[in-house]
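PROTEIN SPECIFICATION:
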Amino acid sequence: MSELHDECGVFGIFRNDDELDIVEETYLALYALQHRGQIGAGIAVNNNGNIQYHKDYGMIPEALPETELLRLGNGQIALGHVKYSSGEHVDSANLAPLAMRYIKGQIALCMNGALTNYPELRDDLNRGAAIFQSNGDTEIIAYLIARARIKSATIEEAVQDAVKRLKGAYAVVLMSPSKLIGVRDPMGIRPLCYGKIGDNYVITSESCVFDSLGGEFIRDVQPGEMIVVDSDGIHSYTENCGGRTALCMFEYVYFSRPDSVVDGVPVVKARQRAGRLLAQQHPIDADIVCGVPDCGIESAIGYSMESGIRYATGLIKNKYIGRAFNNRKRNDEYLMRIKLNALKYNVEGQRVIVIDDSILKGKTSRHIVELLRQAGAKEVHMLIASPPFKNSCYLSSDTTPKENLIASHKSIDEICQYIGADSIGFLSAESLQEIAKECTIGFCDACFTGHYPLDVSDTSREDKYSKKIK
C-alpha cells in the first residue's frame, strides 16, 4: 500500500449512436478510472455547442448524484474526470472538467499530468491581463488554446500551437462545439489511449475502460500525437511525434489497473514479472507470500510462481472508505488500522514474505510489519517490487519532498531496522526495465535514479502559487 497519491483519470466520448445515453456511459467509465483519483469527479456534456457540467468533491456516487446527471441531459460529446489532490488544501475551482467561454464559443477540457513550466506560463498570461479562477495546469492550457484559436483557422491548429509551449507531463482530453480531441505529451509520460464503444469513439487514460463498458480498445495514443474525432470519423496528427519517450514506470508499478494494457504491456504481466524477479534476486525460506493490497498482490503471485512458496492472503483492505474518512481528525496509526488488517488465520505461526509496490516515508511499511507480528507471524520479510524511491517526482506523482523519502537518507539496513522487518529487499533498477521490456516506448525512472527526462530545475510553483491542486 504505497504512500503515493493516485493519478487523475480522463475520459472523452463522441456519440454516433442516437440511442446511447452519453452521460450514463461517462459515469460508468469514471468508475473504471476511480483508482486514479478519489478527491473529486466531474462530467461535462456538449449539446450543439452548449456545454453543461457538474463536478464536486468525493468518490463517484458522492460527486455525481443522479439528480445532477439528469440535469445534464444528453449530447453528442462528453468529458469525464476523476481527480487526486496534490496538497492538503482542496480548491473547488480546480475540479474538472474545466468549461470556458471565449471568442469562438465554448470549450471544456481535463488533464492528467503536471507542467514543469507552469510558473513561466502563468507569469506570461498574467502580464497579458488574464484573470485566473484556479491555480491548476488545466486553466493554463485552456488560456493558451483560446489565445491560439484567435489566429488559427481550426481548433486543431490552436491545440497544436498551444501544446508547443507546454513542458512536462500531460494527457489532455477536450471538446469544442463539434469535436473531441485528445493529446499526449511528446515523451508519453502520462498514458492515453482510444477505442470504441459500439460506434462511438472514446479517448481515455486506460484500456480497462473498454473492458468495463464492453467496448473495443484500438491502441495507445503515440507520444506527441493528437487524436481528433468529428462527424467524419477519427483523425491523427503526428507532427510532434518522434522524439525521446519516457513513460512513467509507476504506471506499471502502481498507478494503472492490473487489467489495463499500457503501451503494449499488460499491467498484470509487468507486476507478476516483478515478483518473479524478486524471487530470483531475494530468495527467502518462508511459509507463505502475500501482497499488500492492491498493487502488491500480483507481484506476490509472481513471487509465489517463481519460488514455489504458497501464496496466501495476509492483509485485508477496507474498500469502502471514501473522502469523508480521509478527512477525519485521527492519528495516522488509527487511520491505517481502519484501512488495513492482517488475516490472523493465514499468518499466525508462519514465516511471512510480504510484497509491496514501493516505500516512501516508511510509516505504512512499519505499520504493516507490526500488523503481521501482532497477528502471530513468526517472521516478516518485506520485499518491494521497485527500487528504493530516492527522488521527488515533478511530473505529477505528487511525492513527498526528497528529504522526507526514507531511501534518500537511510541505507537498506537502516530502512529494515526502521520498519521492524526481519529482512528487506528491493527490485534492482536494472530489473525494473525488464518488467515491461515489450513496452513500445522508453521509460522515466527518475524517482529511483534521479535521471529526469526533462529539465525540472524550475519547480517553484508551490512557492509562487500556493496550495497547487492538479
About this structure: The mean pLDDT is 91. Residues 9-246 form a domain with the Glutamine Phosphoribosylpyrophosphate, subunit 1, domain 1 fold (CATH 3.60.20.10). The first strand starts at residue 9 and ends at 14.
